[in-house]
Amino acid sequence: MRRGIWRRRHRPLRSAVLAGGVALTAAFAAAMSAAATAASAAPSVSAAAPSASAPSVSAASGRAERTHEVEYFTGPGAHPRHTEVPAATPARLTRGDRALSAAETAADGDVGSVIENGPTADKVDVVFVGDGYTAAQQDDFHADVRSKWAQISAVEPYAAYRNLFNVWSVDAVSNQSGVSGDPSKGVVKDTALDSYFWCDGTERLLCVDTGKVASYAAKAPEADLVVVLSNSAKYGGAGYAISSGAGYDGIATASSDHPDSDQVAVHETGHSLGGLADEYVYAPNGTYTGAEPEESNATKLSAAQLTAEKRKWYRWIGQTSPDGGTVGAYEGSRYYPKGLNRPTENSIMRTLGRKYSLPGREAMIAGFYRHASVLSSRTRTSAPVARAASLKVSVSKAASLKWYVDGAEVTAARGKKTVTPASLGVPSDGRHHTVMAKAVDTTRAVKDPALRKLLTDSRTWKIPATS
Ligand SMILES: [Zn+2]
User: Fold this and answer.
1) Do residues 343 and 400 both lie within one domain?
2) Rounded alpha-carbon distances, angstroms, from residue 228 to 172, 239, 448
3) I want to staple 55 with a disulfide (CB 3.0 to 4.6 A). Which of 66, 184, 380, 420 is the partner?
4) % residues pLDDT > 90 (the chain)
5) pLDDT tens by residue, 40-50
6) Same domain flag for 287 and 277
7) What distance in Å separates the CA atoms of residue 252 and residue 229, rounded to the nearest whole number?
């Protein structure tokens, strides 16, 4: 990570949760009805609710109960839903906690590099934390991280940008194998992160103690994305709307051994990395009457208006999208069936298992580059480099690479990943010189000039007079 935190901006109306058919506690229902009243009195205020920062305190509960908003999924191919859950796991599921042995304690919190493509400052750092793995099962966890990342990174535009990512594993040693609520609701497992199915009464909602996750994630050198992998073959997951303050934005949970549970994490990164809105709707929300949404994939405008006013995804309108059909302005988005439009009929921001639309793909690539750099080098620019020293860089797949000596391009060196100042023609003339490498990602998947600025980077090294 090198740039600022990219906050998710969406936050659904609380009344939307009712439409999801979620069982509610009395306290939460009271809060909801208050919110619904407020919404009907001033819909624009509700619709423009502030970005989620958590944990929040539920005033209606009568005691300080820390909660998080989560998005969850009832099955592969399903539309996601939202609800609010406790930040800590209910006490009935955490009983029986046994202190770890000395050997287990020694292994707890170990950090491993699963995939390393460059310095953390130049890459998106994905941190996996395991739950429900005993000390003897940590190798299983590492294998599960590899296969889960392979699934996530098979989705475009991840696939085209794999070398922008580092992947880390953080070992959390559990007393028991597996997680609570698997296979059935009554099953209780003593695990490091207290993850559990049947959260909030929903079987597929896989919750976790977010405070414990944060303490493990902090052990990794850098976290831009955090994924909790719970040791289970049961379908489930969740996306937590959390601004951690530690560089990552949101936590995704996924079961380790269900083939479709990776899609939850992919959808969540649409929010956290891409800044994208959900494109599904809750029928009772009716017609949106608020301000134009901030997110790049939701608008009050028609396709003709987008084009005329050069707004949002107008550059893509009429083009064939990877998720099917052509880009336009399709009615229904961001929880409202009317009054808001989405770019395509059915992208991953609407239904799990789908692909990103063309505008969604553009937002994701820009999101990658907010955390990572198109050009990376382990040779620091803060110290002088000798004429004979090796300069190595790596660049994104679709990037052009040029070298410059004192500002003039050395065309013969185009595309070379390893050079020396001497090989570039830096003379030994008793004077200072500079060598610059410049890379530009030439992908056609990003059209917006403001975003294309993220797709270029350079490094400049000083060559001292005495070398
Ligand atoms: Zn979502």
Assistant:
1) no
2) 10, 10, 34
3) 66
4) 69
5) 333 332 332 33
6) no
7) 9
Interval between CA 452 and ligand 1 midpoint (Å): 25
User: Ligand 1 centre from 190 Cα, in Å?
Assistant: 30
Q: What is the pLDDT of residue 337?
A: 97
Residue 241, H or E segment:
strand 237-243
Distance in Å, CA 267 to ligand 1 centroid: 6
The SS3 call for residue 371 is: helix
The better pLDDT of the pair 11, 291 is held by 291
Q: What are the backbone angles phi and psi of residue 426, rounded to the nearest 5°?
A: -65, 120
**Looking at the predicted structure, is the pLDDT value of residue 256 above 90?**
yes
What percentage of the chain reaches a pLDDT higher than 70? 85
Q: In terms of domains, do 213 and 299 share one? A: no
Cα-to-centroid distance, 277 and ligand 1 (Å): 7
CA of 222 to the centre of ligand 1 (A): 24
pLDDT at 46: 30
Asked if pLDDT for residue 271 goes beyond 70, the answer is: yes
Ligand 1 centroid – CA 268 distance (Å)? 6
Question: What is the distance between the alpha carbons of residues 171 and 216, in angstroms, rounded to a whole number?
Answer: 8
Residues 341 and 197 in one domain: no
Phi, psi of 381 (to 5 degrees): -90, -5
Q: What tokens appear for 179 in the block?
A: 């997680």
Give the CATH number of the domain where residue 35 resides. 3.40.390.10
Collect all residues with Cβ–Cβ distance below 8 Å to 204 and sequence separation of at least 6: 72, 73, 74, 75, 197, 235, 236, 237
For residue 140, the Cα-to-chain-centroid distance in whole angstroms is 24
Contacts of residue 282, Cβ cutoff 8 Å, sequence gap at least 6? 12, 13, 16, 19, 20, 335, 336, 337
